[in-house]
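step=predict obj=Olfactory receptor 8J2-like n=306
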Amino acid sequence: MAPGNHTHMTEFILMGVSDHPELQIPFFCVFLIIYGLTLAGNLGIVILTSVDSQLQTPMYFFLKHLAIINLGNSSVIAPKMLVNFLVTKKIISYYGCAIQLGGFIAFVVAEIFVLAAMAYDRYVAICSPLLYRVVVSPRICLLLEALIYIYSLTTALTVSSCVFSMSYCSSNAINHFYCDNVPLLALSCSDTYIPETAVFTFSGTNLFFSMIIVLTSYFNIILAILRIRSSEGRQKAFSTCASHMMAVTVFYGTLLFMYLQPRTNHSLDTDKMASVFYTLVIPMLNPPHLQPKEQGCEGCIEEIPG
């Protein structure tokens, strides 16, 4: 590696979602609506779960923090993206790019583990309701959320430092609508083994452990639901988890597609389309999809054979 050459790069050009001039205004309108709905939906969740005393439960605690993370993830990317639809020079400074990458990584990692925590919360609520207030107490929720934020920030600092330790001494045009690992690695003229290894290791480790929690939780939840005698009880239990399962499937699916494939197999244009889902579309869909229809499943749990 050539540690000093990367200081010659002072700015990057974000190519955006499309290079067709006639599509810039239509795309601006579409993504402005998406971002507006994301802000309205997630801010509504944060405010409602903060002021309503009946929503001071672990389930809504994690939902509130997921909404905060969705707000952060979208706001790191969408404002700059919207401005670039309206300007000719789609420029982002070197340090602005580093901040955007670090913020994006921090919020994505936090979302991965908050979704895992929500899956575990539902597992305890459905499979061990008598222990719920002990296992998922307010103090444990606060501690868990603090650990998630600390770990996500640590990961963001580590990975973004590795990526921006490379030399960028040729093209500065990023084939993406925000600063992401893969297109930045494609621009480097130095050895990318260490940053690629860091990205793959952190991505793989985070996805593996969080998916183990999610899959184990839902495997036990499904077994518990199948033991419920009445169809009404099964439907009530399933309704507490179905929307979360759908959101987790879409979110994890796009991340697995993006980050756990070799660099040689990457199509940056395809990656851009996948990125739209987990950076802009999923944060917009999460508020209505993830609002629990029931604050537990006490009625149906009684029907599960001991």
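step=describe
The first helix runs from residue 24 to 51.
step=end
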